[in-house]
Amino acid sequence: MPGDDTLFHHALRLGDDALVLGQRLSEWCGHAPMLEVDLALANIALDLLGQATHFLNLAGEIEDEGRDADALAFRRDVLDFRNCLLVEQPNGDFAQTIARQFLFSNWQELLMREIATAPEPRLSAIGAKAVKEIAYHAKFASEWVVRLGDGTEESRSRMIAGLDWMWRFVDELFDPKDGAASLRAEWDARIARTLSDAALEMPKPRRGAMGGRAGHHSEHLGHLLTEMQFMQRAYPGATW
Amino acid sequence: MYTTELKDKNQKSAGLSLADEDPEKLAAFEARVAADDFIEPKDWMPEAYRKTLVRQISQHAHSEIVGMLPEGNWITRAPNLRRKAILLAKVQDEGGHGLYLYAAAETLGTSREEMIEALHSGKAKYSTIFNYPTLTWADIGAIGWLVDGAAIMNQVPLQRTSYGPYARAMVRICKEESFHQRQGYEIMCVLAAGTPEQKRMAQDALDRWWWPSLMMFGPPDDKSPNTAQSVRWRIKRETNDELRQRFVDTTVPQAEAIGLRVPDAALKWNEARGAYDFGEIDWEEFYAVVRGEGPVAKDRNHARIRAWEDGAWVREAAAVHANKRAMRMAAE
Amino acid sequence: MNSNWPLWEVFVRAKNGLSHKHAGSVHAADARMAIEAARDVYTRRMEGVSLWVVPSTAIVASDPKETTDLFEPAADKVYRHPTFYTIPDGVKNI
Questions:
Q1: C41/chain A closest Cα distance in angstroms
Q2: Do A23 and B76 touch, CB atoms closer than 8 A?
Q3: What pLDDT is stored for residue B231 in this prediction?
Q4: Cα(A206)–Cα(A170) distance, integer angstroms
Q5: C36 and chain A: CB distance < 8 Å anywhere?
Q6: C6: nearest CA partner in chain B
Q7: pLDDT recorded at residue B184
Q8: B217 contacts: CB under 8 Å, gap ≥ 6
Q9: What is the spatial distance between Cα A61 and Cα A15, in angstroms, rounded to a whole number?
């Protein structure tokens, strides 16, 4: 059914975004600049892993071929992943991680507000829970953008570099094909407000990198999956 | 966890003799401790008590922080989403526990930065157990089951330790740790009931972690000279050998229940004692690991130093920003 | 300048109707960061509905040496307690 297929892909996109970013953030565990920050990043990662589990289970339910969240997370290859390119970008330094979180969480919050009122009840229930988590992520990341942007010379140049790395993946978030284009104006306003507080300039528009939603990813995703899926690949069929 | 009460090389009891203390104050202090009263940060205390506590609490904190690394090694490779979330939450808890403990030690007048500095320079010790590598997923089960199990044995009595901030930190830690051991044992149960490959993994993990877990309780009582004083001060509530025996007696039936074999040919139930007799621990290995010769000691040390040094510019930026903001506010 | 983040004392209100209680401390560069760190460190298991963070340096504590002067004089004011008073048997609601 085409309707269900659309819903399946919708849930898959939401689940994959959360899964891949949660995986990335969990790489920080034990290595953050300060113990307090370590705990904060782990909390965000745990929120995202929870969202991923809910959205991917829903996708499996809609698909109705016996796949659950684990089957979807651990037994698909790159071409079948539907996350945006932004979330699979490497952590880099702390500024690069914050840049990614700042751009993504602000977008995800706006999107999830819409999803929380979506007519499909299973989707809206997940969205309603997630939106509170994400509002915190967006605030947390935005505050760090201000601290780093308006901190030392070094932190400022690292923040600029981090935003510069991530900026080309912004357009993909608002691809009209996914129906998120209407969020752009509000997102732009939010980003501009924080960057102004941070005494940073809005990065120059540039040709956006696209393809994640069609399974055409950056090289980073393959390595992320190699690590994440290792156990399920090495021991197929085992339960854990 | 993980108070094994290790002494660092430079620590001498010189200058910390109780004989140098004001006898009246000392007597009042000893009486309070003996009466199960709590000592609080601003109370008078003998220097030796303060030093011993800073050493023990910071060692404990370092163990939590370094202990994040062997388990963190498997977060990105956890076999399913549930296990990934559990492991991440658990390792995050260890970070929290390190944080509570550093805070408790800070009330004794040593800053977190000083303690971290001592860890990085190798002056401060941490539990030897974390200088062993996590090779397979089963190691995550074994650590939760054995290492956290040993930790709990040590920590539960410390909830009534004499120093208030330490006792309160331990209360919070024990409450949070209650799921840690169970999740580890659950992993082992699943593996032990799984495919032949999974069973092998589980047995191999038990084989490698058993003896290091027994070593976590520290040297035998006759080689642990500070024990009497520490027990009197309620910094330590039971001796190393008592705790070790209890750990063996509790854990052996748990291994048997899931069909795993404890790697000790001398292990035997002693009806007369109502306890297990067990084999001799390789103390030479223990002291070698204490000296920093554990298989992955260098890796652990480098990882901690790198995280701290890579984060320096972040800590500085946030401090500078806060300062700028405060100046702006003052100017307005 | 010193880039070590200052220490903040954290107080958690477990639920409305109760007062805030000291939970521990965190290091944070600014007040907002202290609130967030307190949230991430001390309310991971739904321990609270409200947080206070106070710079540790702002806390003024009584000196243990004064303990007897400060608190012992209260010991003999038994008349402040209801049990001090004798009421005839059988009299209720007082």
A1: 7
A2: yes
A3: 87
A4: 10
A5: yes
A6: B319
A7: 97
A8: B4, B150, B153, B154, B240, B241, B243, B244, B247
A9: 13
The minimal CB distance from B85 to the residues A46, A74, A228 is found for A46
Name all domains of chain A by residue range, CATH numbers in brackets. Answer: 4-234 (1.20.1260.10)
pLDDT at res. B7:
52
> In which residue are the tokens 């805070």 written?
B103
Candidate from A35, A36, A49 with C-beta closest to B85 = A49
- Look over chain B and give the mean of its residue pLDDT values, rounded to a whole number: 93
Specify whether the CB–CB gap between B2 and B127 falls below 8 A: yes
To the nearest whole Å, the CA of C87 is away from the closest chain A CA by: 58
Helices (H), B107-158: 112-121, 137-142, 148-158
Residues of chain A positioned with their CB less than 8 A from the CB of B68: 29-30, 38
Mind telling me how many Å the CA of B13 is from chain C's nearest CA? 28
Q: How many CB atoms lie within 10 A of CB B18?
A: 15
For A46-86, how does the pLDDT look when each residue is reduced to its tens digit (9 = 90+)?
A: 999 999 999 999 999 999 999 999 999 999 999 999 999 99
Identity at A1, one-letter amino acid code: M
- Among partner residues B103, B176, B315, which is closest to C3 by beta-carbon distance? B315
Q: How big is the A-B interface in CB pairs under 8 Å?
A: 144
Residue in B closest to A95 by C-alpha: B314
Q: From the list B68, B80, B317, which residue is nearest A151 (CB)?
A: B317
Question: What pLDDT score does B165 carry?
Answer: 97
Predicted pLDDT at A78:
98
C13 touches chain A (CB under 8 A): no
Percent of chain A with pLDDT over 90: 95
Task: Report the SS3 class of residue A35.
Answer: helix
- What pLDDT is recorded for position B322? 97
CA distance to partner chain B, nearest, from residue A197 (Å): 11
Cβ–Cβ contact C30 with B under 8 A: yes
Contact A26 B321 (CB under 8 A): no
- Cβ atoms of B323 and C6 within 8 Å: the answer is no
Residues whose CB falls within 8 Å of the CB of residue B56, separated by 6 or more in sequence, listed in order: B3, B5, B235
Q: Which residues in chain B are closer than 8 Å to C3, comparing Cβ atoms?
A: 312, 315-316, 319-320
Q: What is the pLDDT of residues B10-39, one digit of tens each?
A: 444 444 678 889 999 999 999 999 999 999
- A117 vs B15, which has greater pLDDT? A117
Q: Pinpoint the alpha helices (H) of B131-259.
A: 137-142, 148-158, 164-192, 196-215, 227-232, 240-257
Higher-pLDDT residue of A205 and B138 is: B138
B87-101, B156-170, B223-237 — which is least confidently predicted?
Answer: B223-237
Give Cα B191 distance to the centre of its chain: 26
User: Does C45 contact chain A (CB < 8 Å)?
Assistant: no
Please classify residue A188 by burial: count the beta carbons closer than 10 Å to its beta carbon, then call 0-12 exposed, 13-18 middle and 19+ buried. Answer: middle
Residue C1 confidence (pLDDT): 63
pLDDT, tens digit, 9 for 90 and up, residues B213-253: 999 999 998 888 777 888 899 988 888 999 999 999 999 99
**What letter represents residue A75's amino acid?**
R
For residue B113, the distance in angstroms to the closest alpha carbon of chain A comes to 11
* Contact criterion met (CB < 8 Å) for B106 and C7: yes
- Stretch A173-199: mean pLDDT: 95
